Structure formats: C-alpha cells, structure tokens
Amino acid sequence: MPNQSKMKVYYNSACPVCKAGIESQMAKENRCEIQWNDVHKNNDLISEVHADLEFVRERLHVIDEKGELQIGFDAFLAIWRNSPSESWKSKLFGLPLVKPLCRVAYNLFAAVLYKWNKSNKHW
Length: 123
Prior knowledge:
globular; four-stranded mixed β-sheet; alpha+beta; about 15% strand; about 120 residues
C-alpha cells in the first residue's frame, strides 16, 4: 500500500483573520494528512520553507502533497485541492485566466492585512 501523501501548512495565529481561516480549514476533511505549523508559536519553523519570518507572517505557505512549496494564493489552491468539499474551488480559481487575478487580489489583501496586524501590535 502506498504511503499517504502529506502536506505542511505554515500560518500565523497572531493574525485573527488567519487564525479563524485556518481553524475553519482544520475542521474539514482532507484527502491527505496535513501538519499545521503555527509560525507565531514556533518561529523556527520558517527554516523549513527557507523564508523570512515576516514574509511567512504575511502570506500562507504550504509544502504540498508533492513536496513543492506553494505561497500565497497557490497555497490555498493546494489546500482546496485536497479538501473534498472544496476541490471545486481549486478547479475554478485555478483556471488560467482566473488564477493570476486571484493571486493579485490575495497579495493586495495579504499586504493590507499584514500592515493592519502590525499597527495593532499582534506580534
């Protein structure tokens, strides 16, 4: 029997929006095992994704089921792809014309949310 694929999600629980989203995602069934890594509680986890702590705080990072690093909107696509109730999202938002727009929207939202968190001294 082949090994079940695994994913690793790196998120920032100090951000109330991020924390709520991840906690909601944790409650959903997944096609593969997911290891949830909170970089706020353990800053050393960033070494696994070879990124700056502030960048991981700003954008979701995932090592997908193939072992590839996905950042930002692509990280969401990887999570949705492995969630039976949300796989339709990965198909729809992963379409060639839709995906680039979603990436831009995510990056803008992430930047604003990051600044909001910093100004509210969440870390």
